[in-house]
Amino acid sequence: MGAVAGIAAVDVGGFAYAGGWLRPGALTPPRFADRFEHVYGRHDGFRRNHAKGLSAVGTFASTGAGAEVCRAAVFRAGSVPVIGRFSLSGGLPDQADMHGTVRGLGLLFQGSDGQQWRTAMINIPVFADSTPQGFYDRLLASKPVPETGKPDPEQMAAFLDRHPETVAAMKVIKQAPPSAGFADSAFYGLNAFRFTNGAGASVPVRWAVLPQQAAGVPVSSTGKDYLFDELIHALAQRPLSWRLVLTIGEPGDPTNDATKAWPRERRTVDAGTITVTAVQTEAPGNARDINFDPLVLPDGITASDDPLLAARSAVYARSFTRRAEEPKKPSEVDVSRVLQ
User: Fold this and answer.
1) Confidence (pTM)
2) N or C: more exposed end of the chain, with fewer CB within 10 A?
3) Could you tell me if residue 4 is inside a domain?
């Protein structure tokens, strides 16, 4: 139960009223945004989930191998600029860093043809929910009660009884314990997409970015922002890199259920290297004001039949609209303070 509660705020985006798979009057983008505010409180100017974060810039150097399965310009051999954001799950912009909190990495690839590819990834290999309703219910079941500061065990037990897919997903997640920090974290796209190449052949794909550096020496494991501080110090010494790996699905592999992993023996493609060269305190003009909508896709990538994708897109938009209209407060993570 504790592990389930710990990933309650995983931001594979939020969820939506879209496509006919949500009951009218039941789940809507405003209701999802309201639920985040109910659990975490309202924090004007910040994302409703993954509120604590740090902007980043870098490049993606494509090997050209990805063009075998996708015609998007970003997979042609060469380099394109990338804007990123490292984050922690949850709606508290000033929460203390904790080793077990789910970490996020959002990326915006700017293709040479002007088209963008946006993705929001997290550091667990599968998601805990297969439907928007499941996520919505788990978020409430995981809300800490004032008496203990932990979720109500009866509510959580009742939720798990209704959702065996979450129980199965948690077993997979427990087999992949978190790394020491952001720099040595793998990040996973979780949902399946359809990739189409220049010849018109289409295949299901999932992706991950795998770290190319080992864990650094922790700056401190007791400071409130120690995970971000360590990332800032590491990037002050050298760029950090991750390898973008595409996993090609085969017939029978689930494309509509993010709780289920694909077999390990599936073919992979080394698409290139993402290099982060610097991080920035969140401010106007950087990743603070980017909506990492997973359905902002270039020609050659389309959504699969996973119901979470349309949901993520719609509630990301609702959260973005709300915070865009609100006064902004300083970010908890301040690069200049760390490097003084």
Assistant:
1) 0.91
2) C
3) no
Angle at 72 between CA 69 and CA 78, to 5 degrees: 95
Helix or strand holding residue 294 (H, E): none
Q: If you average pLDDT over each of 31-35, 151-155, 292-296, which comes out highest?
A: 292-296
34 near 315, Cβ under 8 Å? Answer: no
CA 231 to chain CA mean position, Å = 17
The pLDDT of 124-146, averaged and rounded, is: 90
Say if residues 74 and 113 touch (Cβ distance below 8 Å).
no
Domain hosting 93: range is 41-125+176-339
Alpha carbon 55 to its chain centroid, in Å, reads 14
**Alpha-helical runs (H) found in the chain:** 2-6, 29-40, 132-141, 153-162, 164-174, 226-237, 307-324, 335-338
pLDDT tens string 151-182: 899 999 999 999 999 999 999 999 999 999 99
Q: Are 200 and 309 in contact (CB under 8 A)?
A: no
Alpha-carbon dihedral 85, 89, 93, 96, rounded to 10 degrees: -110
| Residues linked to residue 194 through DSSP beta bridges, in sequence order | 204, 302
Catalytic residue of the set 38, 50, 99, 233: 50
Contact 206, 186 (CB under 8 A): no
Check the annotation: does 40 bind a ligand: no
Amino acid letter, 115: Q
Q: 228: which 2 tokens?
A: 């971000």
For the chain, how many structural domains are there in total? 1
- Alpha-carbon distance of 17 to 265, in angstroms, equals 36
The CATH number of whichever domain residue 72 belongs to comes to 2.40.180.10
Annotated active-site residue 233? The verdict is: no
- Strands (DSSP E) contained in the chain are 52-62, 78-88, 103-110, 116-122, 187-188, 193-196, 202-211, 240-248, 268-280, 301-303
